Amino acid sequence: MFEYRYQLISEEAFDLVFANKIDIKINWLIQNLARYLLKNISRYRGIIDLIPAYHTLTVYFDPLLISYQEAKQSLNNLLNSDLFKNSSFAKRIIEIPVCYDDEFGPDLKDLAEYAKMSIDQLIETHTNSDYYIYMLGFLPGFAYMGTVIDRIAMPRLAQPRKKLEAGSVGIAGKQTGMYPVQSPGGWRIIGRTPLILYDPNRPEPRYRAGDYIRFKSISKEQYEQIREQDRAGEYKLNTISGESDEY
Predict the structure, then answer these.
(1) What CATH code would you report for 5-85?
(2) What secondary structure letter does DSSP report for 42?
(3) Partners of 61 in the beta sheet?
(4) Where is the Carboxyltransferase domain (predicted)?
(5) Which residues, at least 6 apart from 39, have a Cβ–Cβ distance to it below 8 Å?
(6) Which pLDDT value is given to residue 202?
(7) How far is the CA of 73 from the CAs of 76, 92, 173, 194, 212, in angstroms?
(8) In Å, how far are 102, 180, 204, 208 from 140, measured between CA atoms?
(9) Parallel, antiparallel, or unpaired for β 56-61 and 90-99?
(10) pLDDT tens by residue, 48-95
(11) How far is 222 from 54, CA to CA, in rounded Å?
(12) Is the pLDDT assigned to residue 201 strictly greater than 90?
């Protein structure tokens, strides 16, 4: 079990704090603890909401129904139960199609030069890993994912672009991510997915923290086909499930 502590941040909220580092095993525990509590929220009277992040879990509670000490004890009991000490959790990998074309990847050439490899080798390298989603933030549905291998972990742009199209896929150091809506951004853009990543009429994204993303290289022709299918509601994501070997 990992070491942790509690930090009261208001009369109605506190943080469960683990080591201050990006660690898949710690984050996996946080995500599954939050998911379990939310799924069984009726059994934890007074706990209102939970916000998982890289190495913290923020817990909101009603002090009229449960005290800070009681809420902490509920978490302690869970963290020390067999469910979280000995059990493994299902690993879900979601395949995201990406077109790595010059039109969609303005930083492809620069990143290939940085990595001292061809563009084809860069694409192969980016698609050969499964990227863990540590958290969602910055924009609705923006997934912070890792870990990018050192060779292609190029730092973000010194001057962010004023506009990136929705679906842009990029790298910023050890992280990779997808822009769910049009926005400014400083990540190194190497491709674009034709999928709708955020729909205000369907606020739940197609992936969640704790999932893995596997990028699949597609042609420009396939990009247009999938784009049309997805907008018509006819495209089904390829999802692979299995037992996690991370925790």
Answers:
(1) 3.30.1360.40
(2) G
(3) 47
(4) 4-215
(5) none
(6) 80
(7) 5, 30, 38, 46, 31
(8) 26, 7, 9, 12
(9) unpaired
(10) 999 998 899 999 999 999 999 999 999 999 998 877 765 555 678 999
(11) 35
(12) no
Q: What is the pTM of this model?
A: 0.81
Alpha carbons 26 and 158: distance in angstroms, whole number: 31
| Domain regions of the chain by residue span | 5-85, 90-243
- Asked whether 175 and 189 are in contact (CB, 8 A), the reply is no
pLDDT (tens digit, 9 = 90+) per residue, 87-132? 555 678 999 999 999 999 999 999 999 999 999 999 999 999 999 9
Question: What are the DSSP calls for 157-222, one per residue?
Answer: PSS-EEEE-TTEEEEETTEEEE-SSSEEE-SEEEEE--S---BTTB-S-SS-TT-EEEEEEE-HHH
- Tens digit of each residue's pLDDT (9 = 90 or more) over 142-197: 999 989 999 999 999 999 999 999 999 999 999 999 999 999 999 999 999 999 99
Task: Return the bridge partners of 8, or none.
Answer: 14
Residue with tokens 């923290």: 209
Query: Whole-angstrom Cα distance, residue 82 to residue 78?
Result: 8
Question: What's domain 90-243's superfamily in CATH?
Answer: Cyclophilin-like (2.40.100.10)
Are the CB atoms for 133 and 212 separated by under 8 Å? yes
Q: Which helix (H) or strand (E) holds 116?
A: none
DSSP letter (8 states) at residue 156 = P
Q: Which amino acid would we find at residue 50?
A: L
CA angle centred on 80, ends 131 and 90, rounded to 5°: 30
Residues of 216-239 as b/e, b for ≥16 C-beta within 10 angstroms? eebeeeebeebbeebeeeebeeee
